[in-house]
Write a structure and sequence with these properties.
elongated; about 25% helix; alpha+beta
Length: about 120
Amino acid sequence: MTDSTPNPTPNQPWIATQATITTCRYQSPGLSTLAFGFQTTQRFLITFDYYAHGRLHSGQFQSPTAIPQNQRIPITYNPLDPQQNSRTHGPNATPTTRPPLIAIGITGSILLSLLWLTLLRTCN
């Protein structure tokens, strides 16, 4: 006897559901604005929960506006991997990480230090 539930295919569309906002925290730009001269428009870190395939999943995204706790928002999720959702993994997802500017600065510092040390060795 075969299972009547169709197996998802890689081209299967994502499934629509509702997520519930669990937290909304203001993110202060802090020193990043002073140190690097830029400011993001994304100010609030929003955390949410949703049910997919009988299990509770969580996610987070940044938003320029606050969203009240317990408010429901529409999302879609990947039926092949329900942890992937439109707010954190989809084409319109907003990254929650800082820009790689800090990593570029650290790498540049290390390279300049190595160059300086190389120049000092060649002078002797």
